[in-house]
Specification:
5-stranded mixed barrel; OB fold (Dihydrolipoamide Acetyltransferase, E2P); 5% helix; homopentamer; 43% strand; 6 strands; globular; mainly beta
Chain lengths: 87, 87, 87, 87, 87
């Protein structure tokens, strides 16, 4: 799972039905020093995360299977809010 | 999901049967500042996106399962048109 | 799907049974300007592509499911020949 | 599988149910010279690894299937402790 | 599939049961000019490859399905030895 910071959200009216009602957050991956790595993506929130939170992201079929529809369009999901980084 | 801008399309006559009838758009991934990231790919459109639109992309088995054939060749699909980036 | 140019092929005698009889082409991913991106890989051809052709590549389970064996080793496949890039 | 060094852990109270009870370790991928490569991620431990250990990581559906729940959020798992690198 | 050179192996005593008895080789991905690309990983050998061999690698679920256990930890496998690169 990537560590990331929630930096915003997107609004999309015209979208796949499976995305209706999902919170689509813009996330910036980070390392344990909270430095930015890689590139921003959009992840479906499953844990009530908000802008500024540090979160755990899962990807691929692990993200897709968190939802119950037959053809979920999600390939990135927020699955935890990070309280502390222990190093 | 990656954020991206639709920058064109490709024409392919000789292709896998599962691609026949699909709109194959060239997309340039971007961050929330609309700066280019990563590299261009081709994605199958599912939401009526056109050149110049900002879109959401899904990848891998999430993209494949959006279509109903037994062996869909798609590994990238456009699943939403982004109206606004809230940061 | 990645855009790519076919730049060669590999010969392999000792290989997984699922690869026997498949054309294994060396491909160089490109962007819509035909500039090289990323890195070369080997993809199984499904559309009769030859060296010099511009092609579409699919990856992961989408590539694997194009073939019918129970344990196909393919994770990259050529699924279309690009006639034109419209930008 | 990536080679990596375990460099810490994260604490997360608010998280997907499938992550409850799993040890979530921060890992830094390395090459065989133990030089850092790529970027840090969080992996679920399955072999009793601790901070400072060199480990093997698996990703994607291979990591997810190591656990038995219907919708496991894990996409990275520690699956071995490396005793020696033979080069 | 990535092209790669086998550069070593790892020894791991404490590991997932599915890895017991598998040869775990350190591989360095290369391009068709045999120049190093990307980063080293560990792949399970399925074709009798040894150090110094040039090989084909498959990844993800294609690698996992080469083995028959219900929860195989492998996400990278050597599936061919390259005899010649034709460019």
């Amino acid at each position: 799972m990537l560590m990331a910071k929630v930096v915003g959200s997107v609004v999309s009216t015209q979208k796949d039905l499976s995305l209706v009602g999902k919170k689509l957050m813009i996330i910036q991956p980070i390392n344990a020093e909270k430095q930015e790595i890689r590139f921003q993506q959009v992840a479906a929130d499953t844990v009530g995360a908000g802008v500024g939170d540090y979160v755990l992201l899962t990807s691929g079929s692990a993200a897709r299977h968190l939802f119950k529809g037959p053809s979920e369009a999600v390939d990135y999901a927020i699955v935890g809010i990070i309280d502390t980084f222990d190093k």
